[in-house]
Amino acid sequence: MTTGYETPEVIKERYQGMVGIDVDVTPPIPMSGMLGWDGAAWEKISSDGSGNLSFTLDSPNSVTNGQKTVTTAGTAEVLAASTTILSVTIKALSGNTGYVYVGSASVDSTNGFVLQAGESISLDIDNLADIYLDVSANGEGVSFIGVSA
User: Fold this and answer.
1) Of 58, 76, 97, which residue is a domain's last?
2) What is the pTM of this model?
């Protein structure tokens, strides 16, 4: 982890538009939060409200992976047990004959993000247990790989 300090102008130039967030660093506005992945590290900025801005870079340093099959089509199941992560890529198994639906606990065929065999989606999310799957055919599933700091 690296920590440093930069002026509001440098912070705004560096982070403007990351994950769709407009950065307004006009002091004295206290702020903090993860802004996004810059391709090498998760970047966070914070302000104490007096114009002093700081940033912290957390680089992923461990990998979590696995496979999940959904037993019964039409029944949402959690992707994995509670596991803290920074991001995950979920790929529909190549042997699937139907669709995989990715989403929240209420995911189903009418509201899920649809994956066909071999297709994938990457998500910036903090816990694998927040992702649910449903399928159009019994026993189909996904493989996944995630990173954490």
Assistant:
1) 58
2) 0.65
The full DSSP string for 34-90 is EEEE-SSSEEEEEE-SSS-EEEEEE---EEEEEEEE-SSTT--EESSSS-B-SEEEE
Domain that holds residue 14: 2-58
Q: Is a pLDDT exceeding 50 seen at residue 13?
A: yes
CA-nearest of 84, 85, 90 to 132 is 90
* φ, ψ dihedrals at 9, nearest 5°: -65, -40
Helix (H) or strand (E) holding 2: strand 2-6
Among candidate residues 127, 86, 119, the one with its CA nearest the CA of residue 101: 119
Q: Are 108 and 101 in contact (CB under 8 A)?
A: yes
**Is residue 148 within 8 Å of residue 84, measured between CB atoms?**
yes
